[in-house]
């Protein structure tokens, strides 16, 4: 393994950004994910020599330097299809996307109009968990998940690592300074048997540190 290019010859799939769940042709359910962290990780992985497929939800971000393939999607179901198609050939899957937990049960192809009946009641159904689905595959890539927590970060992250059967999990402590939509971030990295804090830093710097750790753990599991 070259220290300058620890992911040379390694195929990495990364999902990033939010998903939008359409209600009608003009309305959707979304979230505040900017996609910045996922794009920074994609850039860092490419700089580390990886062949990166970046699956992006609706974001206002240019494709980072060195990305082999970018697939733009909108909804959770589209993201799932794109990930499952790409991940077959992947060595590492990094799930940074803020996938919407629910979608609207009945998309209305016509704009829902205001009327005397009052506000519509939206029925929501749960979206598939893309990360858990990839982790359940056999064979499967090295699987890295993300978690956004406001409290008890370590305990919640530890539970998520086990529940989703992940090789690594990067937990964000979300508040108004760091995390979703912000330029800085801090991460607690955990894996079966250990953990490490990557202190607060700009997302691009943190992404490089995270990719270095992912590469080390990936190679420890899969000797070159
Ligand atoms: N994820 C996914 N598909 C979903 C939901 C989440 O792939 N339908 C992935 C995300 O990309 C992320 C991780 O799962 O890597 C986040 O897990 P989740 O259980 O959604 O955690 P939180 O968003 O932190 O929410 P909660 O703590 O409420 O479970």
Bound molecules: cytidine-5'-triphosphate
CATH class: Alpha Beta
Counted up, domains total 1
Any idea what the CATH superfamily is called?
A: CoaB-like
Q: First CA to last CA: what distance?
A: 7 Å
Task: Give me the secondary-structure category.
Answer: alpha/beta
Second-tier CATH architecture: 3-Layer(aba) Sandwich
Strand order of the largest sheet: 5-4-1-6-9-10-11-12
Radius of gyration using CA atoms only = 18 Å
Mind describing the biggest β-sheet?
Answer: 8 strands, mixed
Global morphology? globular
Order of helices and strands: EEEHEEHEEEHEHEEEH
CATH topology: Rossmann fold
Low-confidence stretches: none
Give the integer mean of the pLDDT values: 93
**Number of strand segments:** 12
What is the tally of helical segments?
Answer: 5
Q: Beta-sheet strand percentage?
A: 25-35%
Query: Percent helix among the residues?
Result: 25-40%
Q: Could you explain how this protein is built, in words?
A:
The structure is a single chain. With about 220 residues, this protein is an alpha/beta fold. It contains five helices and twelve strands. The strands form three sheets. The protein has an eight-stranded mixed β-sheet, with helices on both faces. Strand 2 (about 20-25) and strand 3 form a beta hairpin. Helix 1 packs across helix 5 (about 205-220). The longest helix has 19 residues, at about 205-220. The model has no long low-confidence stretch (mean pLDDT about 95). Bound molecules: cytidine-5'-triphosphate (CTP). Cytidine-5'-triphosphate binds near residues 97 and 146.
């Amino acid at each position: 393994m070259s220290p300058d290019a620890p992911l040379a010859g390694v195929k990495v799939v990364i999902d990033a950004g939010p998903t939008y769940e359409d209600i009608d042709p003009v309305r959707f359910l979304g979230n505040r994910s900017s996609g910045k962290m996922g794009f920074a990780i994609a850039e860092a992985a490419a700089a580390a020599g990886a062949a990166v497929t970046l699956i992006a939800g609706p974001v206002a971000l240019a494709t980072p330097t060195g990305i082999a393939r970018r697939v733009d999607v909108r909804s959770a179901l589209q993201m799932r299809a794109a990930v499952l198609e790409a991940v077959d050939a992947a060595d590492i899957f990094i799930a940074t996307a803020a996938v919407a937990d629910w979608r609207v049960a009945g998309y209305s192809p016509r704009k829902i109009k205001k009327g005397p009946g009052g506000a519509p009641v939206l029925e929501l159904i749960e979206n598939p968990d893309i990360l858990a689905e990839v982790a359940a595959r056999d064979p499967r890539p090295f699987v890295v998940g993300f978690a956004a927590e406001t409290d008890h970060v370590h305990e919640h992250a530890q539970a998520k690592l086990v529940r989703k059967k992940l090789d690594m999990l990067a937990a964000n402590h979300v508040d108004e300074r760091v995390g979703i939509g912000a330029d800085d971030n801090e991460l607690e990295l955990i894996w079966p048997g250990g953990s490490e804090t990557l202190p607060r830093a700009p997302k691009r710097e943190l992404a490089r540190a995270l990719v270095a750790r992912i590469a080390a753990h990936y190679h420890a599991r899969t000797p070159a």
